[in-house]
Design brief:
Elements (H helix, E strand, L loop, with lengths): L9 H9 E3 L7 E4 L3 E5 H14 L9 E4 L10 H16 L2 E3 L6 H8 L6 E4 L13 E4 L2 H8 L4 E4 L2 E8 L8 H12 L7 E6 L8 H10 L7 E3 L4 H8 L20 E6 L6 E3 L7 E3 L10 E5 L6 H11 L9 E5 L3 H9 L3 H6 L3 E2 L19 E4 L15 E4 L2 H10 L28 E2 L4 H4 L23 E8 L6 H4 L13 H4 L11 H8 L5 E5 L11 H8 L2 E6 L4 H9 L3 E5 L13 E4 L2 H7 L2 E6 L3 E6 L4 H9 L2 H18 L1
Parallel strand pairs: 3-4, 3-6, 4-5, 6-7, 9-10, 9-12, 10-11, 15-16, 15-18, 16-17, 18-19, 21-22, 22-23, 23-24
Antiparallel strand pairs: 1-2, 2-8, 5-20, 13-14, 21-25, 24-27, 25-26, 26-27
Helix pairs in contact: 2-3, 2-5, 6-7, 9-12, 20-21
EC number: 4.2.1.3
Pfam families: Aconitase, Aconitase_C
GO molecular function, one term: aconitate hydratase activity
Length: about 650
C-alpha cells in the first residue's frame, strides 16, 4: 500500500506543476517551465535585442506581451522610435503588443491575460503582482526572460514558503497598502529574500482581487521571489467582471499542509501607516507625522492600481477642493479602469477638486513626469521611494495608501484619514468593467512574421560582446558602496536617462552617477586593461530587476562584485552577463577594502569548481575567504562570458553535429 503524500501548500503545488529539474528542497537549484512572459518597454528593448542575438525564430511562451508603460514622456524622438522598434519586434517574434495608453503592465496583464495556475516571468520585479490571481509569478532580469521566451526553463533557488495567515477585516480608513506596509515594518527590505509569500486564512474573504494585487506587488519590496494567493470566489468575481470567468478555476493549499515560515496578520488590528523617506521599510503610523508640510499627493502606479483606489479618492474629494500649494496627481493604471471611472461619473469629481489627471502608465513611479520640487514632501501610493527614483535627486517621498494621500491633499499637510469628517467610502468594483480587447495587437502568423524586419535605430544597437573571466583575476577596486544599494543607484531611471536604456553604450555614462559621478569615466579607463571590481554592503542590487544595472557595468569592465549580501535578481543578472558575485564569509573583511586596492584571485575557475568558497588576496593586505554558491550550470555561464555566449556556443555545437552527420 502506497503511503499518502505530504499535503502541499499552494506555492508547492504550483512549483510541482512546473518543475522541470531539481528537488523542491529550499536552497537547492530548481528549473521551472514558464507559460507566459511579460515585457515592459524600457527593458523589453534589451530582451528583443537578446532574442535577436540568440537567433530566435518564434517565442515559445504564450501569451508573451510587450507593454509600453514606462517611456511615455515623448520629450524628443527617442521614446516614439522605441515604440516602433518594439512593435516590429513583436511582429517578428510572435508577441502581443500593448501600445502607449493601454496602461501599466501588471494590472493590465491581470485584467486581460492572467490565468490562474499558470507560470509567468517578467522583466520587471513587480511581475509578482500576478500572484494575486493564483499564478506563479516571478520577476527576473531580461536575459532570463528572453531565455524563457526561447523555451528554456527558468532557474532559481528553491524558496522557503512563508505562510501568512490573514485574520479579521480592515478597519475604516485602512486599506491593503497599510497591510503590506505593516509587513515591511516588521521584516524590512530583505526579510523575504528567497521566499514565496503565501497568504491564506479567513481574512482573505475580506480582500478583493485588486487588494491582493497591492500585497503581491509589494512583496517584491521585501525581497520575496513571488507572492501567491488562492484562487477563490473573489478571483472569480474579478475575472467575471472582465468577461473572463471561463479562465477561473479553484486553487488552494491542501488541508494539513505546512509552511517553512509562519506568521499571523490580523487585519482588524491595523491603522494607517506611512513609509518615511527614503526606503519602503521605514514605516511608522501616520499619526506620528501628522502636520508635516506637503507639496504633492500622487495616486496610482502598480502599487495601487485598482478601480477602488481611484473611486475612493473621488468620493473623498467630492464637493471639496485640494489645499492651496498641493498638487494632487491622479495616475490611472489602465485604459479599462479609466473608462470605467468615466462611465461611473467619478472622473468629474476628481477634476473638479483641482486634481491633475495624467495618462495611464507608470509615469511618476519611475521618474517619468510628476517629479516633485527639491526637498518637498511627496506622498505617493507607489511601491518604492528610493532616493531620486521620483525624478528629483534630492526628493522626500513617503509611501502611503490612497486614503492617507487624499486626506493630506485636502488638509494641506500630512493627515490621518481617520480625522476626516465624513463616513468611510467603502467601494466595491462594479459587476461589469468596461472592456475593449481591440486595443491590443495580436501576434502575426509565423510565415508573415518571418518577413518582418526589426525597425532599429542608432539607439537600439546590437549588444556588446562580453569576454569570459580570466583564470587569474587581477583588478583594482574601483568603487566601495554601503548597504542597500539599489538598481536605481546603479542605473538611474527618469526621463533624462531611461530613453537611452535601449543602448548599452549611450546609457553607460550615467552608471552609478548618484553614488560616484566619476565611476563611469574611471571604469571606461579600465575596460581594456582587465576591468575592475566593486565592493558592496548588505542587500546589494535591491529593487528593480533592470538587467542593465548588471550589463552596463559589465560592459564598462566589471569583473566581480564583493558584497556582504546580494538581492536575488541582481545576483542572477550578474552571473547571466559573466560577472562574478562573491559574498564575504567574514563581514569584517568588508572594512579592509578601499577604493584603489588591487584584488587578485588565482586559479579562479579551478577554485570555483572545487567548492562553494574561494580565496582572494588584496595586495598588501593579505588573503581572505569569499563564498560564491554557484551551481555547475552557473559556473559554465561564467566560463563562457554569460548566457548569450553560452547559447551561441550551444547552437554552434548543434550545427556542427548536424553538419557532421
Amino acid at each position: 500500500m502506497t503511503a499518502p503524500s505530504t499535503p502541499l501548500n499552494l506555492a508547492q503545488q504550483l512549483i510541482r506543476d512546473h518543475l522541470v529539474d531539481g528537488e523542491m528542497t529550499p536552497g537547492s537549484e530548481i528549473a521551472l517551465r514558464i507559460d507566459q512572459a511579460l515585457l515592459q518597454d524600457v527593458l523589453g528593448t534589451l530582451v528583443m535585442l537578446e532574442l535577436e542575438a540568440m537567433g530566435l525564430d518564434r517565442v515559445k511562451t504564450q501569451p508573451s506581451v510587450q507593454y509600453i508603460d514606462h517611456g511615455l514622456v515623448q520629450a524628443d524622438n527617442l521614446n516614439a522610435e522605441t515604440y516602433l522598434f518594439l512593435k516590429s519586434a513583436c511582429e517578428r517574434f510572435g508577441v502581443w503588443y500593448s501600445g502607449p495608453g493601454n496602461g501599466i503592465s501588471h494590472p493590465v496583464h491581470m485584467e486581460h491575460f492572467g490565468i490562474p495556475g499558470q507560470s509567468i516571468v517578467g522583466c520587471d520585479s513587480h511581475t509578482t503582482a500576478a500572484g494575486s490571481l493564483g499564478m506563479l509569478a516571478i520577476g527576473a532580469g531580461g536575459i532570463e526572460v528572453a531565455m524563457a521566451m526561447a523555451g528554456e526553463p527558468l532557474y532559481l533557488t528553491m524558496p522557503e514558503i512563508w505562510g501568512i495567515r490573514l485574520e479579521g477585516s480592515l478597519p475604516d480608513w485602512v486599506s491593503a497598502k497599510d497591510a503590506v506596509l505593516e509587513l515591511l515594518r516588521r521584516h524590512g527590505v530583505a526579510g523575504g529574500k528567497n521566499t514565496i509569500i503565501e497568504y491564506y486564512g479567513p481574512g482573505l474573504a475580506n480582500l478583493s482581487a485588486m487588494d491582493r494585487h497591492v500585497l503581491a506587488n509589494m512583496g517584491t519590496e521585501m525581497g520575496a521571489t513571488a507572492t501567491v494567493f488562492p484562487c477563490d470566489e473573489e478571483t472569480r468575481r474579478f475575472l467575471a467582471s472582465r468577461g473572463r470567468e471561463a479562465d477561473w478555476k479553484p486553487l488552494a493549499a491542501e488541508s494539513g499542509c505546512s509552511y517553512d515560515r509562519e506568521e499571523v496578520l490580523d487585519l482588524s488590528s491595523l491603522e494607517p501607516l506611512i513609509a518615511l523617506p527614503s526606503s519602503p521599510d521605514k514605516v511608522v503610523p501616520v499619526r506620528e507625522v501628522v502636520g508635516e508640510p506637503l507639496h504633492q499627493a500622487y495616486i496610482g502606479s502598480s502599487g495601487n492600481p485598482g478601480y477602488r483606489d481611484f473611486a475612493v479618492v473621488a468620493e473623498m474629494v467630492r464637493g471639496r477642493t485640494v489645499a492651496d500649494g498641493v498638487s494632487l496627481d491622479i495616475n490611472p493604471s489602465s485604459r479599462q479602469v479609466l473608462a470605467t471611472l468615466i462611465r461611473d461619473d467619478y472622473l468629474a469629481d476628481l477634476v473638479a477638486s483641482g486634481a491633475r489627471l495624467h495618462q495611464t502608465g507608470c509615469n511618476g513611479c519611475i521618474g517619468m513626469g510628476q517629479a516633485p520640487a527639491v526637498g518637498r514632501n511627496s506622498l505617493r501610493t507607489v511601491p518604492r521611494n528610493f532616493p531620486g527614483r521620483s525624478g528629483t535627486r534630492e526628493d522626500s517621498v513617503f509611501l502611503c495608501s490612497p486614503e492617507t494621500a487624499t486626506a493630506s491633499a485636502l488638509a494641506g499637510t500630512i493627515a490621518d484619514p481617520r480625522s476626516l469628517d465624513m463616513p468611510y467610502p467603502r467601494i466595491a468594483e462594479p459587476a461589469q468593467m468596461v472592456v475593449n480587447r481591440d486595443v491590443f495587437v495580436a501576434p502575426l502568423p509565423l510565415a508573415e512574421a518571418r518577413l518582418k524586419p526589426l525597425q532599429k535605430t542608432d539607439n537600439t544597437p546590437a549588444l556588446p560582446e562580453l569576454a569570459a573571466l580570466p583564470d587569474t583575476l587581477e583588478v583594482p577596486v574601483l568603487l566601495v558602496t554601503g548597504d542597500n544599494i539599489s538598481t536605481d543607484d546603479i542605473m538611474p531611471a527618469g526621463q533624462r536617462v531611461m530613453p537611452y536604456w535601449s543602448s548599452v553604450y549611450a546609457s553607460a555614462p550615467f552608471t552609478f552617477e548618484a553614488v560616484d559621478a566619476d565611476y563611469a569615466r574611471r571604469a571606461e579607463n579600465t575596460r581594456t586593461l582587465g576591468g575592475h571590481a566593486i565592493v558592496g554592503g548588505h542587500n546589494y542590487g535591491q529593487g528593480s530587476s533592470r538587467e542593465n544595472a548588471a550589463l552596463v557595468p559589465r560592459y564598462l569592465g566589471l569583473q566581480a562584485v564583493l558584497a556582504k549580501s546580494f538581492a536575488r535578481i541582481h545576483w542572477q543578472n550578474l552571473i547571466c552577463f559573466g560577472a562574478l558575485p562573491l559574498s564575504f564569509i567574514d563581514a569584517q573583511d568588508y572594512d579592509r577594502l578601499e577604493q584603489g586596492d588591487s584584488l587578485v584571485i588565482h586559479d579562479l575557475h579551478a577554485q570555483l569548481a572545487a567548492g562553494a568558497e574561494l580565496t582572494a588576496e588584496v595586495v598588501g593586505k593579505g588573503a581572505f575567504r569569499l563564498h560564491h554558491g554557484l551551481t555547475p550550470r552557473q559556473r559554465e555561464l561564467l566560463a563562457c562570458g554569460g548566457v548569450i555566449n553560452h547559447i551561441r556556443r550551444a547552437k554552434g555545437a548543434s550545427a556542427g553535429a548536424a553538419d557532421a552527420s
